Amino acid sequence: MIDQLKDYLHFPIAWYFRFFAQIRLRRWNPRIVVVTGSNGKTTLLHMVESQMGEKAKYSHYANTAFGIPFDILELHRKSLASSEWIMFFLKAPLQVFAKLPKETIYVVEADCDRPGEGKFLASLLRPEVVLWVSVSRTHGMNYDYVVTSPPGGWQVGSHPPGVNSFQSVEEAIAYEYGYFLEACPKLAVIDGDTKLQTNQTHRSRGKVVAVKKAQALTSYTISKDNTSYEINKQRSTFDALLPEELFYSIAMCREAVEYFSLPFDPQFKKFILPPGRGTLLKGIKQTTLVDSTYNANLESIRVMLHMFSKMPGKKKWVVLGDMLELGKKEQEEHERLAEVLAKMDLERIILVGKRMKEFTAPKLVSLQKDVITVASAKEALDDIQKNLQGGEEILFKGSQSIYLEGVIEKLLTNKSDSVTLPRQSAFWKAKRKSLGL
Q1: Counting CB atoms within 10 angstroms of each CB, which of 182, 212, 322, 346 has the fewest?
Q2: Of the candidates 412, 413, 430, which has an alpha carbon nearest to the alpha carbon of residue 421?
Q3: Can you give the pTM of this predicted structure?
Q4: Which of residues 313 and 128 earns the better pLDDT score?
Q5: CA-CA distance, 405 to 417, in Å (whole number)?
């Protein structure tokens, strides 16, 4: 009942902050770049920042119907306490007339967590440039009700199809992201190899550049220390383990930078990888830890596993946590993950959480793969510490409430490296501590 009330009030309350944010945005009148997509948008935002630097303002830690108006109004959350909301309600009208940013470009990360959010944000921002990096089943549970009824009728609690009904959740999510194309009069850059994106390009009012692998990516190489891409005869190398699909982001970043007539640095010398997206860390017993713990869905896990399979090494472990908010396809997505894992040469597979135990592990066993299942991150840590021999490469990937970053922290050789991990605020540290991490 409480969750239903929150859903009902979500946009009405967001509109309150949007009203004042829109007035302030008109006073400021920056040129707006929207960075959007299901996966990879934060990394792309950081890439753009490494190129544009102080010429633009960036919406760090804000990408939703609430977060973006808060960022425009400079209402920055310092805790997750409910008392902050009261203060924000009172301050929002006053912030309209606060000192405006000096930057003339505003680079905004924008998500579509639920139906209506893309339209809500696109009509607020009206971006000059859109960089749409991906589409996948992130937050799929929020889109189940807009999918056309399957044969046999609607299930209890579901909604009948409306004006916009879709054959799949992915199609519905892509349509929501398409509102940014509708609102963009100048330049939109998309993944041209993804049909879900190309199907939305008719809605664009401006130029659409479709980045395609066959035309852009010449080579992709990965070592124990870095990842290198050759794109349109320019080489980019990063001191992190990054998936092949990141080349789309590199190409999109270049399009945006050159659109604003700024110099493009293919080496990304000022780029800082955001936490939990493939950071390489040194672990106890000469282990190599790959931190990809920021979040997880099937597509983001798949591309990281593909990357991990190319990484040199013979003693490869993976620690994977439940994928959350998948809706009706929860079982199917976890079973598809098992099929991906079954094709890999892995020394140890550790699955964390009830969904992994119920759906992924049985499928792996049926495919004749050994697997360890544990209920919590603390149990995963205990298993790792007990069985480490030394020299292993371990990939960590899971949704945020699985707390796998807490496992990595306990395995670090240099404990000060914990600052590079995601969710380092007092709130999350207290959560992990309560769970024995």
Answers
A1: 212
A2: 412
A3: 0.90
A4: 128
A5: 12
Percent of the chain residues topping a pLDDT of 70 = 94
Q: Tens of pLDDT along 372-383?
A: 999 999 999 999
The structure tokens listed for 39 are: 């996966």
Query: Is the pLDDT assigned to residue 163 strictly greater than 60?
Result: no
What residues have CB less than 8 Å from 433, skipping those under 6 apart?
none
CATH classification of the domain holding 170: 3.40.1190.10
Q: Verify that 239 and 284 share a domain, yes or no.
A: no
Residue 116: both structure tokens together:
């209506």
Nearest in space to 135 (alpha carbons), one of 325, 322, 297:
297
Q: For residue 384, give both structure tokens.
A: 């790792």
Position 264 in a domain:
no
Domain that holds residue 409: 279-434
- Cα dist from 196 to 37, 132, 247, whole Å: 12, 11, 19
Which DSSP string corresponds to 203-266? G-SSEEEEE-HHHHEEEEEE-SS-EEEEETTEEEEESS---TTHHHHHHHHHHHHHHTT----T
Q: Which residues pair with 281 in a beta bridge?
A: 289
Instruction: Please state, in angstroms and rounded to a whole number, the distance separating the CA atoms of residues 378 and 46.
Output: 32
Tokens of 324: 């959350």
Question: What tokens were used for 376?
Answer: 């919590």
Q: Is residue 267 a part of any domain in this protein?
A: no
Helix pair 2-28, 83-95: axis angle to 10 deg: 30
Residues 246 and 340 grouped into a single domain: no
Is-contact 93 150, C-beta < 8 A? no
Q: Mention every residue, 6+ apart, whose C-beta is less than 8 A from residue 121.
A: 34, 65, 68, 110, 112, 179, 180
